[in-house]
Specification:
The chain has two helices and two strands; from the N terminus they run αββα. It is of the alpha+beta class and 52 residues long.
C-alpha cells in the first residue's frame, strides 16, 4: 500500500507507525521512518492540557 500511495503522489513521504499495535507491524519496520507507540496518546494529552 505504501508503494502505491508513493507512486500515486509522485514523491516519497515520511511514514510513522503509531499506536500500541504498531509492534504487530515489526516485519515492516524497515519501511517506517519512525515507530512511536505513544504518539496518539501524547497528542490527546496535549489537547486535554490546552482545553482544561
Amino acid at each position: 500500500m505504501l508503494d502505491r500511495i508513493q507512486k500515486e503522489m509522485g514523491r516519497n513521504f515520511k511514514v510513522v507507525a503509531t499506536g500500541g499495535l504498531s509492534s504487530v507491524l515489526t516485519p515492516l519496520h524497515e519501511r517506517f521512518d519512525e515507530v512511536n507507540r505513544h504518539l496518539t496518546l501524547g497528542g490527546l494529552r496535549l489537547i486535554h492540557e490546552r482545553l482544561k
